Amino acid sequence: MRSALTYISLGLGVFAVALGLVLRLYTYPQLAKMPLDLDSLSVATGTADRALVFVANGPDEHVPEFRDNLPITSTTKVTADPTAPEMEEGGDVAAYIEATKIVATDNPDIGPLSASVRQLCVDRHTGEAVAPCETQFTETDHTGDKEEDRVEEERDRVQQPGFGFKLPFDTEKTTYPWYDLRIKDTVDLTFQREDTVKDLDVYQFAYHIEPQRIGSREVPGSLLDEPDTPSIEADLYYEADRTMWIDPVTGAVIALEQSVTQKLVRDDEDYEDGTIVFDGTLALDDETVTKNVADAEESGGKLWLLTTLPIILWVVGGVLIAVAVVLLLRSREPRPEAGNHRLE
Questions:
Q1: Are residues 173 and 152 in the same domain?
Q2: Per-residue confidence band for 43, with pLDDT thresholds at 50, 70 and 90
Q3: Which is it for the CA torsion 264, 52, 112, 254, positive or negative?
Q4: Do 12 and 118 fall into the same domain?
Q5: 339 assigned to some structural domain
Q6: Does 25 share its domain with 134?
């Protein structure tokens, strides 16, 4: 009886440990991947305390003017590009297109405040940009002046390095390189604290961008208090703060808040004296956050089986193997001879 119990415990223990290894080392990497059919829409709302806008003045003309306390809406759509050569069923790379537009809320007479489109390839396991990538590019339309800027790079160079959509699965409390499209470079996205969003446990991350030049603009002199000058070329500066609430299981962005300031600074001016052309805040709306929480809970529930369950199996398997070893050792202990119990 003891011998049978020994081998049953040993067999179950080995099976539990092996199953845990399969779930964690094989099944988990197969499921913890960004999808090849991604199609998501995020909406953020807020207010521009001050913004340079272009107001329709006839069918083909827009007149620049400043608006204060302007309600704004930002929409971001991310879709997979099934035509990209990097997209292979079961592969480790995905090609995504991200289109973002910021407009004056419920005010169609005002042209878009800004717009951008970009495409890049990402590692489906980590979410980090990778190369080679045939289809990568960025295209921006700055603050309504229709000065388009499209940049395409060679396929073997990562044009938009770092993370730009999400953080890795099993996000750690550390600092990650996050790509900011306006400065076309990475910034340090740093862990701040643990938090909750709609009862979902999340990590709060944040970054700050000091004022820096991102280009130049030619604008009417009247916008820079020089009405007698037809046009003036000035440097465009950008400053930003962004806070993200990340689901640590999936690495997905659950909620986001950001504040952005842009100024036009002439050669004879300091940054502090520049003319503000945008100063506003945006945050993902409640509908978007609610959907993000629901998606994270669904995905996190599946991944829990592949992260926490293996640990349980390893513990249970280890205990069963230990019990089997103890039983085996006891079965090999010599039994006392009957003669040792006779009375003299």
A1: yes
A2: very high
A3: positive
A4: no
A5: no
A6: no
2 neighbors 330 (Cβ within 8 angstroms) = yes
Instruction: Kindly state the tokens that stand for 34.
Output: 């960004």
Encoded tokens for 18: 């092996």
Q: Check: CB of residue 166 under 8 Å from CB of residue 127.
A: yes
Q: Are residues 173 and 308 in the same domain?
A: no
Q: For residues 170 and 93, give the distance between their C-alpha atoms in angstroms, rounded to a whole number.
A: 19
pLDDT tens digits, 286-304: 999 999 999 999 887 666 6
CB 161 within 8 A of CB 153: no
**Residues 171 and 162: beta-carbon distance below 8 Å:** no
**DSSP secondary structure letter of residue 25:** I
Using omega within 30 degrees of 0 as the cis cutoff, is the peptide bond preceding 64 cis?
A: no
Q: Indicate if 2 and 94 belong to the same structural domain.
A: no
pLDDT value at residue 78: 96
Which residues lie across from 62 on neighbouring strands?
Answer: 56
Q: Which residues contact 124 (CB under 8 A, 6 or more apart)?
A: 33, 34, 36, 91, 92, 93, 94
- SS3 at position 99: strand
One domain for residues 102 and 205: yes
Do residues 179 and 149 lie in contact, with contact meaning Cβ atoms separated by under 8 Å?
no
Report the percent of the chain where pLDDT is more than 70.
Answer: 75
Strand ranges across the sheet with 39-56: 148-152, 137-141, 114-123, 93-104, 62-80, 39-56, 275-284, 253-265, 231-246, 200-220, 185-197, 175-180
Structure confidence by residue, pLDDT tens digits, 191-211 = 999 999 999 999 999 999 999
Q: What are the tokens at 179?
A: 């790509």
Pairing of strands 62-80, 114-123: unpaired
Closest Cα partner for 16 from 315, 234, 271, 239? Answer: 315
Cβ 133 vs Cβ 155: under 8 Å: yes
- Sequence-distant (≥ 6) Cβ neighbours of residue 333 within 8 angstroms: none
- Percentage of residues in the chain having pLDDT higher than 90: 51
Residues 66 and 150 reside in one and the same domain: yes
